[in-house]
Specification:
With 245 residues, this protein is an alpha+beta fold. The protein has 2 domains: 3-62, Orthogonal Bundle (Arc Repressor Mutant, subunit A), CATH 1.10.10.10; 68-241, GAF domain (Beta-Lactamase, 2-Layer Sandwich). The chain is built from 8 helices and 9 strands. The protein has helices spanning 3-15, 25-32, 36-48, 64-94, 137-146, 155-165, 169-178, 215-241; strands spanning 23-24, 52-56, 59-62, 97-104, 107-114, 130-132, 181-184, 191-199, 205-214. Strands 6-5-4-9-8-7 form a 6-stranded antiparallel sheet, sandwiched between helices. Strands 1-3-2 form a 3-stranded antiparallel sheet. A hairpin with a 2-residue loop joins strand 2 (52-56) and strand 3. Helix 2 (25-32) crosses helix 3, helix 4 crosses helix 8 and helix 5 packs across helix 7. The longest helix is centred in the first third of the chain and has 31 residues, at 64-94. It is elongated, with a radius of gyration of 22 Å. The relative contact order is 0.11.
């Protein structure tokens, strides 16, 4: 996709406002100053993705995919806003560094991190940075749930999602079954991480929460740390579902 096409897409979406929610082919061609054939190809291609919705008589409005994307954006913002207290409490209870992350494609985006009493430094793991999801505990949790077969995702497509991210199907099934995932030195040889999923409405996994610790402390306190991460992730999910209360 060329820069000109991207700019044209931006101009197209800018047409749709609360005051003017529907546009016809002729109107789009006129406003974008392009031939009708070009406008038609653009509208049909975008509508095929669900970003626009044909409403009859050659008219279009914003499609259901726009709503889904906005839901993702709002959930991500809400998770970040609500998670602060939970992360600080988890760090206070465990003494370890706590983290919050979401998926961006096949990469994990760190949204927040609260340093623990024990200094743990994970290369590339700080708010705003990204790592290959399959290398991180939070990323494995999120990939496993993204690829869970369901009505909108066949087993074949789920397998493709996992293969593209580098996570084995059996590993994803085990993660979903246990509700937990680990990084046993994948990012930094001396660091261990344990992560659990954060669920909002209808049980949808929208983020992951983890703690990072040293290999020694992880071996000593594995069960306790795992339980504390599970409890913190469940608490964050409850707060999201209750509107942050």
């Amino acid at each position: 996709m060329g820069l000109k096409t991207i700019e044209r897409l931006g101009d197209l979406f800018a047409l749709f406002t609360a005051a003017r929610p529907e546009w016809s082919l002729a109107e789009v061609a006129r406003e974008l100053q392009v031939p009708r054939s070009t406008a038609h190809g653009l509208l049909v291609s975008v509508a095929a993705t669900g970003l626009l919705d044909p409403v009859g008589q050659g008219r279009y409005r914003l499609g259901p995919r726009i709503t889904e994307l906005n839901d993702v954006r709002m959930r991500r913002r809400d998770v970040g806003e609500v998670a602060g207290d939970v992360l600080h409490s988890l760090t206070a209870e465990t003494g370890e560094t706590s983290n919050l992350g979401v998926l961006t494609g096949s990469r994990l985006l760190f949204l927040d991190s609260v340093p623990g009493r024990h200094h743990v430094s994970v290369t590339g793991a700080r708010p705003g940075t990204q790592l290959a999801a399959v290398r991180t505990a939070m990323g494995k949790i999120l990939l496993a749930h993204r690829a869970e077969p369901r009505a909108a995702l066949t087993e074949e497509r789920a397998a493709e999602v996992l293969a593209g991210a580098g996570l084995r199907r059996t590993a994803a099934e085990a993660i979903r079954r246990d509700g937990i995932a680990y990084d046993l030195g994948d990012v930094s040889p001396e660091i261990r991480c344990v992560a659990a999923p954060v669920r909002c409405e209808a049980g949808t996994v929208v983020a992951a929460l983890s703690i990072s610790t040293t290999a020694t402390r992880f071996a000593q306190h594995h069960d306790r740390l795992t339980d504390q991460v599970r409890e913190a992730a469940a608490l964050l999910g409850e707060r999201l579902r209750s509107g942050g209360a």
